[in-house]
Amino acid sequence: MNSSFIEAKPILEKLISSGYQAFYVGGSVRDLLLEREIGDVDIATSAKPNEIKKLFRKTIDVGAEHGTIIVLHNETPYEVTTFRTETEYEDFRRPKSVSFISSLKEDLKRRDFTINAMAMDIDGEIIDYFNGKEDLYNKHIQTVGKASERFTEDALRMLRAVRFVSQLSFSLSFTTQIAIRDHAHLLESISTERKVIEIEKLLSGNSFQEAVKLLLECEVYSFLPGLVHKQDELNNLLVFDFTLITNREELWTTISYFIKPISVEAFLRSWKLPVKLIKAVEKNLNYLQLLLNGQTWTKLLIYEAGIDAALSAERIYSLLGDGGTLEVNLNTVKSLYKSLPIKDKKDLNITGKEIIEVMKKQPGPWVTKAINAIEIAILMDELENNRVAIKEWLLSCNQNFEQSY
Ligand code: ATP
Ligand code: MG
Question: Lower Cβ count inside 10 Å, N or C end of the chain?
Fold first, then answer.
């Protein structure tokens, strides 16, 4: 058995020895059979949330009313969920009520796709009531039960289906595609937070092109924030190799670059992204635009950008070209950055207080200007970053630093 499952085994052992049923379920079982890297190992059990809490020393109650308790085992969190059915759904998204049940089969039946509806027992035996294995073999994403019903219950499943197309390079049957097209509008009722997770995974998958084509063909895109009428822009994005993107900031910079919203900030806000991420994207876009305008990296520019924004802008810029020189270009940025005598204002070997003493002047805005001038002189290799040299330079350059730089 794979080590991720062996590590979680004591949780199953404890549940079973206490008289409950317990199984590995969902994505980890799928990924084991696909020989993909195993993500989170989730566990389903007949034990009720309060019973789970009693059995384990360290638990976190993340949603006991829905049956989920996190069990911390060797510092690793595991989601342990009570077998449940989701009876009625409200607003095409959340179940109105969940009922705890004792049947694994019923629990697996409520899951989205056959490939995600398999379980594995403690001995590694696969339990497959809905032909998940066969669909894995055929590379098919198929809902458990009728697609239109399952998408009506929870519209996010449509986006998840397309996300799995991207991540697994699987296909959707024609009827599933039709069901997505017919129900795409229900995505309006889904929270943006849930959509973000799926869209980020979708664009990071190996077959993102197929997935984006499906978003277009099934008109899902119209029900995603800021993408109404953006079919041409989404089509343009197909040529970009998203698999070489290395973080969320770069991902959203690239999306924003292609989508060309009137306001990047408003677009990113409509996706409810954190302010810090939005700021980083705006910064990346700024340097990307400079590169697109023909600007090359100078010491000053790279210092101002900082290494993260410089590398991200360079990566996206290179990938917008043929990408062939990506590594060379990134290395150029890295070595230029490495050669900077200072990386930050705080690397300066002088303080504002010392500058005031040397210049024998009253403190005022001129101090900041003096610091800026010192910074530039050091970056331009006109001045060495040591206290004595800087003091001499201040006295000899004979400026009052009143004008701005
Ligand atoms: P990943 O590897 O990206 O985590 P996953 O399949 O594990 O993929 P999760 O979101 O972690 O996806 O969900 C765990 C399991 O819960 C799924 O495999 C599936 O069985 C079930 N599941 C998740 N979301 C839904 C949903 N919206 N409707 C029905 N079942 C779902
Ligand atoms: Mg998972």
Answer: C
**Per CATH, domain 243-340 is 1.20.58.560:** yes
β-strand partners of 140? 171
Confidence (pTM): 0.91
Please choose from 83, 112, 186 the residue to mutate so as to test ligand 1's pocket, defined by most ligand atoms within 8 A of CB.
112
Nearest-CA neighbor of 80 among 67, 93, 91? 67
As given in the structure block, the two tokens for residue 300 are 């000053």
Which CATH code for domain 1-132?
3.30.460.10
Q: What residue ranges do the domains of the chain occupy?
A: 1-132, 139-239, 243-340, 347-404
Q: What's the count of helices (H) and strands (E) in the chain, helices before strands?
A: 19, 13
CATH topology match: 243-340 vs 347-404? no
Q: Which residues pair with 45 in a beta bridge?
A: 22, 82
- Interstrand relation of 42-45 and 76-82 (parallel, antiparallel or unpaired): parallel
Q: Which CATH class is domain 139-239?
A: mainly alpha
Which CATH fold would you assign to the domain 347-404?
Answer: Serum Albumin; Chain A, Domain 1 (1.10.246)
Q: What residues flank ligand 1, with Cβ below 6 Å? A: 26-27, 39-40, 42, 111-112, 116-117, 154, 156-157, 201
- State the Cα–Cα distance between residues 227 and 212, nearest whole angstrom: 12
ipTM topping 0.95:
yes
Q: How far is the CA of 209 from the centre of ligand 2 (A)?
A: 23
pLDDT in tens, 372-404: 999 999 999 999 999 999 999 998 876 767 654
pLDDT tens per residue, range 218-254: 999 999 999 999 999 999 999 999 999 999 999 999 9
